[in-house]
Amino acid sequence: MKEKLVTNKKTYGAVLIISLLAALLLEGFLAVVSVHHGKGQPGINLWPERVASVSGYEVSYQNGTSVVEKTGGDPQMYFTETGYPYGRLSIAFAEPIEEDVQAQVYSLGAGEVYYQTVFIPKGSSRADFDLVCRDYGQMRLDLDGSFVLKTIEASPVVPWREISLKQVLKQWNMGMFLFLWLIMVAVTYSIADFAINSGKNGAKKGSRIVSLDLLRTLAAYFAVACHVIGPMIQEAGMHTPVWKLLSAGNLLLLTCNPIFLMISGALLVKDRQESLASFYKKRLGKIVVPLAVCYLFYMAVFWTGNLTGFQWIKRAVQVMLTGSSEIAPHFWLIYIMIGIYICVPLLRKTVGRLGETGGKRLFLVIAAALSAAAWMKSKGFGGSQWLNWMLWLGIFVSGHIIIQPYMRRYDGLFGLFGFAMAAASYQIMMVRSDYSGIIFNGSIFIVGISWAVFVLALRMENILGWASEWLSFLGRHSFSVLLIHWLVLYRILMPGYLPGLLSHGVRFRIFGTFLAVSGLSLSAALIFDNLIQAGFEKLIDKIRKK
What we know:
Elements lengths: L1 H35 L7 E4 L3 E5 L1 E6 L2 E6 L5 E4 L6 E8 L7 E7 L5 E8 L5 E9 L4 E6 L2 E10 L8 H6 L3 H24 L12 H27 L4 H13 L2 H13 L7 H27 L6 H14 L9 H19 L5 H23 L6 H18 L8 H21 L3 H5 L4 H16 L8 H9 L1 H16 L12 H40 L1
Antiparallel strand pairs: 1-11, 2-5, 3-4, 4-11, 5-10, 6-9, 6-11, 7-8, 7-10
């Protein structure tokens, strides 16, 4: 016992020292990068001195400030070229803004190429954010809102060789250093715990269903792919050959949302003995905790402004409770899942106890409701949030019913039905500009295709044994990939941090971007699942036991 106590003390000491050194190195690196981007250096005045033109705004000048009223749907500001590469942008408002403002930066020197988006929260009077370091030529800035503007300044890039230790020390952020140390403590503790306990009392892995791991993997990377090709579909223009090809592929990729819910339904609706407290702690915790942590990361990356710590936390809590944020629009599915999970104990006592006749009847009711919803939306109504939530609840329940032995006799029919829905969806896309609402959101069209994909994966259960370990690995991290990939795509890839990736043809852009986003998202998911989240869980368990 004494020897174990000494070992634990040595482990904790090593964790603290290693995590401290890691946090020091990381914060030092961040300070160097901040100097490189021009933080703390004199800026070049863009507004009002170098304004070339504005559109979508009505501007009036009062007492040295500019009252900017948004008048169009795509407001734009253009600034004259200076010849300097920019690394940072600073926007000063004369009064705190009264609404959230989205800021988008473009470079006209590169043929009006989009580089990045940030969000300035309501109540901010100043916004400072790093840019991709480059010569923007005649910069374009879109601020989507109305405000009283004081100045806009761009900071020139500081070459790496000209960075001094004094400049770096000025950018040292003690608050960020302590936060990084906390993160690194969790990461280091998790690694140490794995190194010490690996091989001891080898934990038995729970049996996994290979076909469901396949579906988890498909759903996660379908989500990545549809977000990669989404901007390209918009760029192509409706009914062009490229648009038709990508839109047809999108019919398959957008099965990701129904498939995620159907997997959960297949696993959770079956009636079993489990207390309410145990279910909510085990199941909701696996969704709510990662969602909250990822939301905080998104806010730290995408938000700028000068809110106080209390204001920032208050705004963050509001956004997380309502889900009303554009920084992570794909999180809507997680909120749908949370609402449905709350209902699972009731579903287990009702749907989970249905026999063959009741199950088939309920499935037909769900199919009829999805068909009616598609018809309603084609007529311009049926957009109620409650109606759509009920439709997604039906999709969730269909995942439980479709895996029942009595439904497996109809796998072939599901395949034919899915093919028919894909063909019908493609025809709708050719003749209706509002096809998205008709086909994709709680509609029989996309769900019919999803059912076909689902049963095809189920039929592959016995032939995927050779890939079971890989699919188990990818499936375990699929939820984190779903959460993280949007940040990787729109904060790393789209701004051009991987040079040349977005400057080639459509095929290279699609496959190159997809592989890059998938690889980086999976790497981040591994760190999050195995180190950060696991480390915090272990630390919390230790605290509770003490």
